[in-house]
Design a protein that fits this description.
mainly alpha, 6 helices
Length: 145
Amino acid sequence: MDADRGGAAQAQHHGKLAAALADPKTWVLAFIYFTCACAVYTLTFWLPTLVKGLGISDVASIGWYTAIPFSFGAIGILLMSRSSDHFKERRWHVASSLIIGSAGTLRDHVHGGRFPAVDDPAVDRGVLHLLLRAVLVDSSDLPEP
């Protein structure tokens, strides 16, 4: 506290900030956070359009179908938090959600939102729910040990 009052801490603070900005790990983590935020906002804004693309045209139904993945996401957040607390591990829990979310996004991009040789909207809805759950879980704040 004496150092804070004396003004010496401010010089140390700038030195630590400069060191953090010079560290490549800071930029990698910032990029990971940026991509997670982009995924969450993209799904939040475009999910009704994706649901409409599954063949659902009623506006109320689109709203209800849009709410279902968020419910699964909330359940996934609770389960993932409980699991990470039980195993006292955070990195692989977050990484697995990121991997599942990116695999689902890649699948949607490559196959145009449909599984090859599967023409069942229920399968597409299931994959959409899994994708959203994974993205919502990795964006949640898992409790610290």
